C-alpha cells in the first residue's frame, strides 16, 4: 500500500502524521510512503530525515492525495483537502465530526473511508489514540490558563501558587478523565487550590486516592458547578462523550456570577465545547472575552508543543495504522476496536454519536464493510 502524509495546514498546526521513525516501520512492513516536502519541519525533521527512513518526497499535497491509498494526518481535513479525497481511499486522522457538519458532508460526498483516532477503543473501555493528546492538552490547559490569568493578558492578575501570606489561585476542573487528571497534576504542582467535578463516584474515589487529599472532589450537580465556577480563577472544561458533541455545562448566565478576569479553558472545544459561550480559536489569537470572562478555546492545543505531541501521537497510532496498511478494510472487519474508529464509509455515517448529532441515518459498520 502507498501511505501518504501531507503537511498539516490548520492554523498553527506543527504536528505531523508520520514521524521518520514511523515511516521506517511502514517500510519494514513492505509499504511505500510518500511524504509532502516540509511536513516534518515543525518537529525538526527535514526531508532528508524522511528520505533516510525510506520515504519518497512529494512537492505538493495534491500529489500526496492523488497517489496515496491511505492518507495519515493529525487534524481533520480542511475544505481544500476533503475535496481531494476519493472513494476507495483510507483517511486516518482526528475528525471530531459531531460539531462539524460541513466537514461531515464533505467526507460523505467524497466516498472516502475515514477512521477517526478519537473513537478507536481498547479492551479497557479507553480511547487509546485520543489519550496521549488528552494528556498533552490537560497539562497545557493549566499553562495556558495561568498565562491568560495574568493582568497584561486580560486576566485577574492572580498567581496560581500564591506566595507566603497570600492565598493561591483556585482551579475548578469539570471532568475527571484523562484531561482532568493531567490538568489537576499540573495545577497541584504549581500549588493551586484544585477541585475536580465529575458525575462518577468511583472515579472521584480514584482521584481522591491518587492525590491523597491534595485536591477536592465534588459530585457534579448544577449547584456544585455554580459554586466551583463562581469561586474559581481558572475553570477547565474537560468533558468528553466519545464521538458526540460536548454538553454545555457552563451557561452564559453563569458567567455573571464568576470573578471578573477569571479564565475558562475549554479543552472540549474539538467536540463543540462545554461552555455555552465557547467558539474555536487558534494559537494566533487564542483568547477572547465575554462578560468580563476570558475564554481560551484553541482547537488544536497540542499543536503548540509539536515535538512532544507528534511523537506521543505516533506512538499510539502506529500499530493501528500498520494494521490498516497491511490488511486494508479487512483490518476494520477483524478488529472491533479499530472498527469503532470508522466514522464514514463510502457515503455512509457509521458512528452512532455522529449520526445522531447531525441528523444522518446511521449505517452499521459490519454491514457496510461486508457490502
Structure description:
- Helix 1 (20-28) runs parallel beside helix 2 and helix 6 (131-148) crosses helix 7.
- The protein has 2 domains: 2-119 and 305-370, Rossmann fold, CATH 3.40.50; 134-299, NAD(P)-binding Rossmann-like Domain (Rossmann fold, 3-Layer(aba) Sandwich).
- The mean pLDDT is 97.
- The strands form 2 sheets. The chain has an 8-stranded mixed β-sheet, with helices on both faces.
- It is built from 15 helices and 15 strands.
- By secondary structure, the chain is of the alpha/beta class.
- This is Alanine dehydrogenase.
- The active site is at residues 96, 270.
- It is an enzyme of class 1 (oxidoreductase).
- GO terms for molecular function: alanine dehydrogenase activity; nucleotide binding.
- Pfam families: AlaDh_PNT_C, AlaDh_PNT_N.
By CATH's scheme, which homologous superfamily of the largest domain applies?
NAD(P)-binding Rossmann-like Domain
3D shape: globular
Low-confidence segments: none
Number of domains: 2
Determine Rg (CA atoms, Å).
21 Å
CATH topology of the largest domain: Rossmann fold
CATH architecture of the largest domain: 3-Layer(aba) Sandwich
CATH class of the largest domain: Alpha Beta
Structural class: alpha/beta
Distance between the terminal alpha carbons, to the nearest Å?
A: 22 Å
Strand order of the largest sheet: 3-2-1-4-5-6-14-15
EC number: 1.4.1.1
Active site: 96, 270
GO cellular component, one term: plasma membrane
GO molecular function: alanine dehydrogenase activity; nucleotide binding
Amino acid at each position: 500500500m502507498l501511505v501518504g502524509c501531507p503537511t498539516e495546514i490548520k492554523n498553527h498546526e506543527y504536528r505531523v502524521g508520520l514521524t521518520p521513525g514511523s515511516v521506517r516501520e511502514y517500510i519494514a512492513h513492505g509499504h511505500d510512503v510518500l511524504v509532502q516536502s516540509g511536513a516534518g519541519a515543525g518537529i525538526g525533521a527535514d526531508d532528508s530525515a524522511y528520505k533516510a527512513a525510506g520515504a519518497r518526497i512529494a512537492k505538493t499535497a495534491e500529489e500526496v492525495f492523488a497517489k496515496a491509498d491511505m492518507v495519515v494526518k493529525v487534524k481533520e481535513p480542511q475544505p481544500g483537502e476533503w475535496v481531494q479525497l476519493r472513494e476507495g481511499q483510507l483517511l486516518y486522522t482526528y475528525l471530531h465530526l459531531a460539531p462539524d457538519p460541513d466537514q461531515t458532508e464533505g467526507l460523505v460526498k467524497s466516498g472516502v473511508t475515514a477512521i477517526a483516532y478519537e473513537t478507536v477503543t481498547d479492551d479497557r473501555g479507553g480511547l487509546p489514540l485520543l489519550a496521549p493528546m488528552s494528556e498533552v492538552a490537560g497539562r497545557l490547559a493549566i499553562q495556558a490558563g495561568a498565562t491568560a490569568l495574568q493582568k497584561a493578558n486580560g486576566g485577574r492578575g492572580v498567581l496560581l501558587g500564591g506566595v507566603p501570606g497570600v492565598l493561591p489561585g483556585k482551579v475548578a476542573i469539570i471532568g475527571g478523565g484523562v484531561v482532568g487528571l493531567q490538568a489537576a497534576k499540573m495545577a497541584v504542582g504549581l500549588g493551586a487550590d484544585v477541585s475536580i467535578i465529575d458525575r462518577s463516584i468511583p472515579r472521584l474515589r480514584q482521584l481522591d486516592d491518587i492525590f491523597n487529599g491534595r485536591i477536592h472532589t465534588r459530585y457534579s450537580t448544577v449547584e456544585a458547578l455554580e459554586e466551583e465556577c463562581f469561586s474559581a480563577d481558572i475553570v477547565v472544561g474537560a468533558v468528553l462523550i466519545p464521538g458526540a458533541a460536548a454538553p454545555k455545562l457552563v451557561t452564559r448566565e453563569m458567567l455573571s456570577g464568576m470573578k471578573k478576569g477569571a479564565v475558562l479553558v475549554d479543552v472540549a472545544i474539538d467536540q463543540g465545547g462545554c461552555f455555552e459561550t465557547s467558539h474555536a480559536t487558534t494559537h494566533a489569537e487564542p483568547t477572547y472575552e465575554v462578560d468580563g470572562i476570558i475564554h481560551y478555546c484553541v482547537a488544536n492545543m497540542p499543536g503548540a508543543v509539536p515535538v512532544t505531541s507528534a511523537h506521543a501521537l505516533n506512538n499510539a497510532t502506529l500499530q493501528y495504522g500498520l494494521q490498516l496498511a497491511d490488511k486494508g478494510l479487512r483490518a476494520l472487519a477483524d478488529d472491533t476496536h479499530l472498527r469503532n474508529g470508522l466514522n464514514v464509509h463510502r457515503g455512509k455515517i457509521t458512528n452512532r454519536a455522529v449520526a445522531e448529532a447531525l441528523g444522518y441515518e446511521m449505517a452499521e459498520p459490519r454491514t457496510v464493510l461486508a457490502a
